[in-house]
Model the fold of this input.
Amino acid sequence: MKIKNVKGNRISLPQRLIGFAVVLAGVSILSFALSAISDVDPAEAIARQQISNASPELIERIREEYGLNRPVTERYFLWIAQILKGDLGISYMTRHPVSADIAALLPRTLALSGFALLLIIMISLPVGALCARYQNGVFDHIMRWVTVLGICMPVFWLGFLLLIQFAVKIPLFKVTAESGIKGYILPAISLAMPSICAAIRLFRSSILNEMSADYVVYLYARGKSKTCVLWTHAFKNALPPMITLFASYAGSLIAGSAIVESIFSIRGFGVFLIKAVIARDLPVISAAVLMIASIFVLLNLLADIINRLLCPKIAVKEDTNV
Done:
């Protein structure tokens, strides 16, 4: 399968699709193996949820019921066969199909992560460009300290500060989860802040690197102003590393949403996954890790395609190297 961009450069995808399959296979093996070799017995954890002082007979019966007495390799291949059929198994905690639990909770986490990613893109790109435009100026120095502080600021601490300030002292929001976009504003800010600050510094460096390129000297010789060169040419050429970074952020925001969901009382996929880890709910853990890895790989594949369409010289360089 090949995709053509507007200038006719062909984008070959078979190698990336093969890599996608290899990564997913490796993640599935690793996640299942780590869950299987844990020193906590899942059968005992399930029994403790029902009866605090479960008998060995009850634990053994649960182990047989869930097939936990089978060899690890056999359980792994049975699990893979179920996944290929669209069956992610039954949750030990809820006794519901894992796919049903994920389908019910994942949309909230995706909405939170999507809102946070939108904030990262909308803030980091213009601010990073302004820092590059006024390099070593007052604005650049101020943003340097702000971004360092934001990168070092723990997400949970910022979340509590926002709740105290804007839900308690100034009651613009509710302490508990709200419906609609309003309920995602404070959580998204908390989740996005460290990534915003890191992206500002990276985009600033990327633009400054473009501003030192040879074509910029040519544009200056043609009478183009620094502002015109930066916003018209350097800005676009500095985007490819940022698109790759945003794709990585999108996956990490989903994986790291549990803390923010706990603080703002959002019943989402992140909190559900934490509870599954505590309860040693192997079907949920394995399915969640596989799903998050799939999102990471797919987003990075999408970022690569966008970069090739946005900047055809990337495809040309790779084709030349091949």
In short: The radius of gyration is 24 Å. The chain has a mean pLDDT of 81. The first strand starts at residue 2 and ends at 4. Residues 89 and 98 are 6 Å apart (CA to CA).
